[in-house]
Amino acid sequence: MTWLQMLMLFLSMAGLAALPSASVALVITRSISQGPRQGIWVALGILCGDLLFAWLAIVGMSSLSHWLGDVFQVVRWLAGGYLLWLGWQLLRSGPGQWQGESQRGGSSFVSGLLLTLADVKAIFFYASLFPVFVDLDRLTLMDMASLVWITICAVGGVKVTYALLAARLAERLSQKSAIPLLTKLSGAMMLGFGGYLLSKH
């Protein structure tokens, strides 16, 4: 890969990662309701899911999704159920119950990972995007490392930026008692995304 190809791939992936989506909403929700650290954990979970799909695309295993259709359906149900549970918890939480809580990042990481793995179309996204910039049949070890590094910087960088910006916004709005409203709105969004995932076939 040339430097220009790497730059163009990075810009393409970063732009797509920045588009409003369920993953962006989950990062923002966790940052607002539980602080930036939890938002970053969600971003890391999303990144790990993206790296798995990128690896599958690199090694030419996009057809694997046809053979593992039932597995992806189970993951989609898990992700949808988790988002419904998270949304319900946010809706019924009292003022300040979530904000500032010191929690481990495990559940946030898993939520980001499950949400990403529930979207099997991501394999096809990477399988169609990468060949635009590099010949997948002639990949060198350096090309593979570049693709992984670009994915980390583009997807991870954008999602972590969302987490930090959302946390800063929440901090400013907390003085105006807007956090309870934002938490309820976040809960409603999570219920919506969870229901959407469960309704997909």
Name some characteristics of this structure.
201 residues, 0% strand, mainly alpha, 9 helices, globular
What would you say this structure looks like, in words?
- With 201 residues, this protein is an all-alpha fold.
- The protein is 79% helix and 0% strand.
* Low-pLDDT segments: 95-102
Structural class: mainly alpha
SSE arrangement, N to C: HHHHHHHHH
Strand content: under 5%
Rg on CA atoms, Å: 18 Å
Overall, the morphology is globular
How far apart lie the N and C ends? 38 Å
Counted by DSSP, the helix tally is 9
Query: How would you characterize the largest beta sheet?
Result: none
What's the overall average pLDDT, rounded? 78
Number of distinct beta strands? 0
Helix content: over 70%
Entry summary:
With 201 residues, the protein is mostly helical.
List the helices and strands and how they pair.
Layout: H1 3-18, H2 22-34, H3 36-58, H4 64-67, H5 69-92, H6 106-117, H7 121-133, H8 141-173, H9 179-199
